[in-house]
Amino acid sequence: MSIQVPSQSFKYTPPSWAQPVLSKVPSNGRLHLANLPTPLYKLDLTSHTSSWSALLRELNINLFVKRDDMTGGVETGGNKIRKLEFLLADALAQKCDAVVTIGGEQSNHCRATAAAARMVGLQARLILRTKRANSVMPPESSEFGTTGNILFDRMVGSRIYTCTPGEYGRLGSNALVQRLCTYLKGNLEEKPYPIPVGGSNGLGSWGYINAVEELMNQWPNSGDEKLSLDHVVFACGSGGTAAGICLGLALAHGAADEALREKRSGETPSVHAVGVCDSPDYFYDFVADIADEMGFSHSSSSSKDFVRQHMVAHQGKGLGYAASTPEELEFVTSFALDTGIVLDPVYSGKALFHFLTEVLLKDKEAYRGKNLLFWHTGGALGLYDKEADLLSTLAKTAPVARLDVYEKGQDGMVTI
Ligand SMILES: *Cc1c(COP(=O)(O)O)cnc(C)c1O
């Protein structure tokens, strides 16, 4: 199909390996919103100058990148659009006219949801958690600014409601979404569709079951070019991506199917979810809850056991959610300098930095000669929020000079 109509849903058929274990298949179909399949790159490390790249060369590790930062344009790019293909199909089937969702001030999820909602004719209502909630009060809403994701939220006409981190923590994101929905129904006669933080529920997580199927079709699984997929690394924020990747990779490698397990010669990749906000225990439980929502049933293990068997959650939040250390930002800069691929400071950059400098470095020999896939989940707009912190590194790595075209001979100018 070459011409796509975003609001036209089509029937979703899950991969055969998912069906017996995950019985709650999305019944309202899927939309074509993401640019799929996203590219799978193998990086050529030879010209790289950074220390992390030297480490990978020394250990003879192959680094692959799954470019889910390329699922869309600036508006819809990143991992959330895969979940929204299912969530918005459901919203349309329920004849809703708006979506309500919630996230941090620089939420990639809210930005992608808002843009995708408009693509299918729905209005976007966002609750953004911000320390500035009390200082930026109506009617001067323009003072809320246009940095990074916020510009795109506002370009597509989202109505933004703010709350403080304290309010968010005390009431919880689900209660806030529900309350806004009630308000919109009662006071503005809207029919809103609630989407949880990150789009991470049983329905949205099918987006990453689908993504695993896509990866399996790209990865050389058989014949002379067969490669083992040894480690898969990605950032974990609200947990839906981790749920889809953990369940998907395990099931695609035969965790519930003896014949499939033999076909894949028993090699199941190690799944590394690097948490950027909550604790590993929180994520194990959350991912198991999502599995239950997806109708998980397995002959020999509970969802909780299954998740712990097939995923390692790492604590990678560092200074805290969306707070970056100079080392993390330097890593993001050096990665871009070496590869031409820009990671984000809050998720992908933090996760890969933590994985390379903590997890891998502490157990180097275990990774020698392995194939490591990093799943890039997008988020580059978040870098605008870190401009001030990036300047000192950029001054070194990307200097700017004034051309002395009239040969004035002034200090610091370059004569060509
Ligand atoms: C939301 C997000 C993640 C985390 O995905 P979850 O499904 O919320 O765990 C990772 N990277 C980026 C860039 C994101 O925006």
Overall shape: it is globular
Which structural class matches the secondary elements?
alpha/beta
- Would you report the number of β strands? 12
Q: Return Rg in Å.
A: 22 Å
Extract low-pLDDT stretches.
none
Largest sheet report: 6 strands, mixed
Q: Which sequence of SSEs, written as H and E, runs from N to C? A: EHEHEHEHEHHEHEHHEHHEHHHEHEE
* Strand order in the largest sheet: 1-2-10-7-8-9
Distance between the termini: 52 Å
Fraction in beta strands? 5-15%
Helix content: 25-40%
* Number of helical elements: 15
- Round the mean pLDDT to the nearest integer and report it: 96
Task: Give the names of the bound compounds.
Answer: pyridoxal-5'-phosphate
Question: What's this entry about, in short?
Answer:
Helix content is 38%, strand content 14%.
Write structural notes for this entry.
The protein is of the alpha/beta class and 416 residues long. It is 38% helix and 14% strand. It is built from 15 helices and 12 strands. The longest helix is centred in the middle third of the chain and has 16 residues, at 173-188. Bound molecules: pyridoxal-5'-phosphate (PLP). Pyridoxal-5'-phosphate is lined by residues 78-80, 108-109, 198, 200, 235-242, 344, 347-348, 377-379. The site of pyridoxal-5'-phosphate has 21 residues, from helix 3, strand 7 and helix 8.
